[in-house]
Amino acid sequence: MPDFFHELLHRPGLVAGVDEAGRGPLAGPVVAAAVILRQEDCPEGLNDSKQLSAARRAVLEGEIKARALCWGLGVASVDEIDSLNILWATMLAMTRAVEALTQDCAHVLVDGNRCPQWRWASTAIVEGDAKCLSIAAASILAKEARDRMMIEAAAAHPHYGWESNKGYGSAKHLAALREHGPTPLHRRSFAPVAQLSLL
């Protein structure tokens, strides 16, 4: 289970955890979250969002928002994903998430193997959402926020099953893409969408 080991390494000063949701889908934005937790008032059961049920994530999202010192969200749009590529769009979303924090941090812990080019001292932690409580909290906020966006988008584009697949390339999504073509929320730089756009 994640713990505060990495946060404590980089104190004194506030330490934020950052993670993203939505690098792999064929449609929708990429969303990042940044969280500065209070060690003395940390919700129990924080973990990599992929290891939690939807019901548990929803409960923890509310607890994180209520009990964290501060938190922020950052979004990179489909147009930004297509113009920058998904890696740099993800870095942009992470930067926006840290900028959205109401308190500045001394260090940022980033899930993954590289950090954005930004003004904060930072450390990349591979599988950080399973090791670091702040990153785990960020993973929950990012996934919950993005899932809501895709459920809302599904109402406007009902053929693709986004309410369940959240924009990932499920069989239903790919079949609808072949039948109905891409929407403005599809990432045209991603191969399955780009190939259909050429037909």
From TrEMBL:
Its EC number is 3.1.26.4. GO terms for molecular function: manganese ion binding; RNA binding; RNA-DNA hybrid ribonuclease activity. Its cofactor is Mn(2+); Mg(2+). A divalent metal cation binds at D19, E20, D111. InterPro entries: RNase_HII, RNase_HII/HIII, RNase_HII/HIII_dom, RNaseH-like_sf, RNaseH_sf. It holds the Pfam family RNase_HII. Transmembrane segments: none annotated. It is an enzyme of class 3 (hydrolase). Keywords: Cytoplasm, Endonuclease, Hydrolase, Manganese, Metal-binding, Nuclease. Manganese or magnesium. Binds 1 divalent metal ion per monomer in the absence of substrate. May bind a second metal ion after substrate binding. It is found in: Cytoplasm. Residues 13-199 form the RNase H type-2 domain. It comes from the Bacteria. GO terms for cellular component: cytoplasm; ribonuclease H2 complex. One of its GO terms (biological process) is DNA replication, removal of RNA primer. It catalyses: Endonucleolytic cleavage to 5'-phosphomonoester. CDD domains: RNase_HII_bacteria_HII_like. Endonuclease that specifically degrades the RNA of RNA-DNA hybrids. PANTHER family: RIBONUCLEASE H2 SUBUNIT A, RIBONUCLEASE HII. Belongs to the RNase HII family. This is Ribonuclease HII.
